[in-house]
Amino acid sequence: MVTPIRKPRGGELTKRQKAHNKRLSKERVVVENAIASVKHYRRVSSVYEGTLEDFNAEFNVACGLANARLMLRNGTYNHWQSVLGGGKGR
Questions:
Q1: How far, in whole angstroms, is CA 73 from its chain's centroid?
Q2: DSSP class of residue 85?
Q3: Separation of alpha carbons 45 and 61, rounded Å
Q4: How does DSSP assign 7-50, residue by residue?
């Protein structure tokens, strides 16, 4: 786990430290958006009372659906369909 560099009391961060924090912030946004897209599926975001194995399977399905949704939005689904030998994309 990498944490941002904190500004010292009464001081300032260097340009290098600020650049480091900015890189971390950009990565964090990507990760947070990925988590939010998986939580879009209620089965994963609500309280789960089944077994851990079942939850893992359902979480994997939710991740796959979120990934497919992202691919459809970005237009990369048609590319992978042609690479994997699937039918025509929509």
A1: 15
A2: T
A3: 13
A4: PPTT----HHHHHHHHHHHHHHHHHHHHHHHHHTSHHHHS---S
- Nearest in space to 33 (alpha carbons), one of 74, 66, 80, 68: 66
Q: The whole model's pTM is what?
A: 0.62
CB 64 within 8 A of CB 72: no
Judge whether residue 81 has pLDDT over 70.
no
**C-alpha span between 19 and 78 (Å, rounded):** 36
Contact present, 66 and 34 (Cβ < 8 Å): yes
pLDDT digits (tens, 9 = 90+) for 1-15: 889 999 999 999 999
32-43 pLDDT, tens per residue?
988 888 888 888
Question: Between the CA of residue 49 and those of 7, 74, 90, what are the distances in Å?
Answer: 43, 35, 38
Q: What length does the chain have? A: 90
